[in-house]
Amino acid sequence: MNLRQILWALSMLGLIILIVYNIRNNSNFFITSIHFIINIIIAIVFAYYLVQNKNDERKRKEIAEKVLRDIQLLSLTKLVDSPVDKLEFMKKILMHKRSLNNKIKALEGIGDALGINEHIKYIKDKFEEYEALIDEMNKENYQGSSDKIMFLIDEKCELAIVELYKRKANKRNYRK
User: Does the reported pTM lie above 0.85?
Assistant: First the structure.
């Protein structure tokens, strides 16, 4: 057993001894008013609601940040690393497009609640440009043409992540 566990066990033992002592020596220990019980219930419900609400908001932001980071990673992925045949290259491109498209669609679902709809719309527009570019190109001119679009998507993802947490800071400062 480490010191932390020992301290925790001693604290619990002390608390139990205190409770038993109060029950034995105080005849009015269990007597309380309905007003006091209602106040405690309201305080517990209110505290739970506030904590759960913040947890949900924090979780949504974490999910959005993870998806945005995944989009960044995909946008910076070089698909032309080594010589491959055209069929293999097209398979990589299609998988890349599908993955990006799925992540953008996932973001659209929570973007309104988080206030990053403008960023998501921009990312989606650039992704549509990327798709149009891919449809009319071949392997040789793929990388150079798509780099600029992917760089813009990466930058907008970073701005969206900053916006997620900037909104929270602005709300906090506004309340003061």
Answer: no
